[in-house]
Amino acid sequence: MSMQSTLNRALFDQVMVPNYNPAAVIPVRGQGSRVWDQEGREFIDFAGGIAVNCLGHCHPALVGALKDQGEKLWHLSNVMTNEPALQLAKTLTDSTFAERVYFANSGAEANEAALKLARRWALENGGEQKDQIIAFTKAFHGRTFFTVTVGGQPAYSDGFGPKPQGVDHIDFNDLAALEAVISDRTCAVMMEPIQGEGGIIPATQEFMEGVRALCDKHNALLIFDEVQTGVGRTGNLYAYQHYGVAPDILTTAKALGGGFPIAAMLTTAKIAESLKVGTHGSTYGGNPLACAVANAVLGVVNTPDVLEGVTVKHRKFLDGLNAINDKYQVFSEVRGQGLLIGAVLNDDFAGRARDFLVASADEGLMCLVAGANVVRFTPSLVISDEEIELGLARFEKAVAKVKLG
């Protein structure tokens, strides 16, 4: 019996904690926007590891960076700094509103750092009573106990005992609701420029500008969670640039490492002062291996070619999905920005997003869901036109299957 055949889906249930329920398919190899499983079946990847593999699989620039750095230095601890980390911090500050960077390993960790910084800053700049954090229903900010409490999906934070206090939730894109809740006791407002897990819901321009103005009025920090929207996903390096509204703190992860774990929290020099020596830390944050890969990612993504290409590919996806919908009438709308796209199911198919995902996998296409009513697409930013067309053809077959039962 080959080793491969024993490493199967059944083994998962014997050795893994049951918090995931993965598909039976086990991918073993990827190239660009294609993936092959144990049986040699080919899939087109419209999922990108949930907006992580921004340059697809095994991109030569990333493989090269990993191999080069892998023969130099992997880890040092933050008792010392290192060249890849300094380069990455410089690139991020040169390319954004930010002046200071803190490195971590995941979006949740970057958000945890952002929330801790906001609370510490408010304590020093407004006193103990300035502790309110305002976030939005359906928001997702990670799975640590603090970030999951700030996230607007109670099902993820219920059942673990008393939650961190001082967190209020209001509806997204509802400026009047924010105005009613915000005050001088507000420490920070945290939001995704486009709600991801919540259903690919972009903030309106008016809402973005209104939130910024209310934060300024009440001396509260505005935190943008750009874990999913960042690193070229929307056609700008960060989505806030599309709105022309800068936050005080921004978090980035997922695509930043193109598949290698790394995250960063970006902020201004003034606000950063509140994270004095010893107030926060991370064992692996800013390690040379992750930073070298992230430098390679930005070297490719943060170019006019790739960023403008995202907008062109967005159009191609929209046209393709709308053409499929003209035929089969399953979506009420297709929304999103760049290559963060949500196809919203109409009333006839409400709650059945997972059926489309499963049918797609049967046709050799990897896609995602965002809640029960939205099919989500977050492919590589450099996916070829040919792969887009092939993937959409497979998706059309899946849609036909679900439609015709």
From TrEMBL:
Look up the record and report any one GO term of the cellular component aspect. cytoplasm
Q: Which residues carry this modification: N6-(pyridoxal phosphate)lysine?
A: 254
Q: How is the cofactor bound?
A: Binds 1 pyridoxal phosphate per subunit.
Q: In which pathway does it act?
A: Amino-acid biosynthesis; L-arginine biosynthesis; N(2)-acetyl-L-ornithine from L-glutamate: step 4/4
Q: Give the catalysed reaction(s), semicolon-separated.
A: N(2)-acetyl-L-ornithine + 2-oxoglutarate = N-acetyl-L-glutamate 5-semialdehyde + L-glutamate
Q: Which UniProt keywords apply?
A: Amino-acid biosynthesis, Aminotransferase, Arginine biosynthesis, Cytoplasm, Pyridoxal phosphate, Transferase
EC class, as a word, reads transferase
Q: Which residues bind N(2)-acetyl-L-ornithine?
A: 143, 282
Cofactors that this protein relies on: pyridoxal 5'-phosphate
Q: Which CDD domains match?
A: OAT_like
Q: TM spans, by residue? A: none
Q: Where in the cell is it found?
A: Cytoplasm
Principal location class: cytoplasm
User: Which GO-annotated molecular functions does the record name?
Assistant: identical protein binding; N2-acetyl-L-ornithine:2-oxoglutarate 5-aminotransferase activity; pyridoxal phosphate binding
What EC number(s) would the UniProt record show?
2.6.1.11
Q: Which GO terms describe its biological process?
A: L-arginine biosynthetic process
Q: What else is known?
A: May also have succinyldiaminopimelate aminotransferase activity, thus carrying out the corresponding step in lysine biosynthesis.
* Assembly description: Homodimer.
Family of this protein: Belongs to the class-III pyridoxal-phosphate-dependent aminotransferase family. ArgD subfamily.
Name of the protein described by the UniProt record: Acetylornithine aminotransferase
Give the organism, scientific name: Ferrimonas sediminum
